[in-house]
Amino acid sequence: MRQHNRIVFRSMFRIRVLDAGGELLGYVADLSESGLKIRCDVLLAPDSQLELRLRMRDREERMREAQVKVRCVWSGENAQTGQYEAGLALEQPSVSFNELMTELRAGRRSPTPN
């Protein structure tokens, strides 16, 4: 059983994942307080540790960023899309990541405008 519920994104392009050098690695498919699944063009090595930056625009169109240190738990090719996917566990969440998660969870609970 999962420790935290995942937030799944309908639009694959909502949150960008950048590597330590600032290059686009892929996009977040889902995330929670303990990890995330990304879709990318490269196969990540299981057990590899990565420093990543997550970038997205909030509802007010402000750019939000969060730094995270993660460990690749699994990776493989999605047979339907041909893209690689990887499950990443947070090794060291940052204050900015915790703030991002709080904001995303609050946004999911907000009533939708009519």
Automatic annotation (TrEMBL):
Q: Which InterPro entries match?
A: PilZ_domain
In which domain of life is the source organism classified?
A: Bacteria
Any one GO MF term held by the record is: cyclic-di-GMP binding
Can you give the residue ranges of the PilZ domain?
2-95
Protein name, per record: PilZ domain-containing protein
Question: What is the species listed in this Swiss-Prot or TrEMBL entry?
Answer: Pseudomonas citronellolis
Taxon lineage: Bacteria, Pseudomonadati, Pseudomonadota, Gammaproteobacteria, Pseudomonadales
